[in-house]
Amino acid sequence: MIDLDAGTITLPLYQGQMKDGRKVWYILTDTDNKGNADALGLNYAAKLTYEDFEKLINRNIYILLIL
């Protein structure tokens, strides 16, 4: 949800876990699975199937909240 007056957005957070057991929180934006996109309200991006995620991670900034 976008609140233009307050200059804020509200996004659903998903909880995950690092290999060492620490909790992390993350957001989802895109998926290459049409069913998941429809169910979760995400962008359907079929080209993600062919994306080189190592390069993707190197050229984008991701923020994880680690607790």
What does this structure look like?
The chain is an alpha+beta fold and 67 residues long. The chain has one domain. It has 2 helices and 7 strands, in the order βββββαβαβ. It has helices at 34-40, 53-58, and strands at residues 2-3, 8-9, 14-17, 23-26, 30-31, 43-44, 65-66. Strands 3-4-7 form a 3-stranded antiparallel sheet, with no helix packed on it. Strands 1-2 form a two-stranded antiparallel sheet. Strand 1 and strand 2 (8-9) form a beta hairpin. The two termini are 25 Å apart. The mean pLDDT is 79.
User: Count of DSSP helices?
Assistant: 2
Globally, the shape reads extended
- Strand order, main sheet: write it out: 3-4-7
Main sheet overview: 3 strands, antiparallel
Helix proportion range? 10-25%
Distance between the termini: 25 Å
List low-pLDDT spans: none
**Secondary-structure-derived class:** alpha+beta
Number of strands: 7
Gyration radius, to the nearest Å? 14 Å
Beta-strand fraction estimate: 25-35%
Overall mean pLDDT: 79
Total discrete domains = 1
Topology as a string of helices (H) and strands (E) = EEEEEHEHE
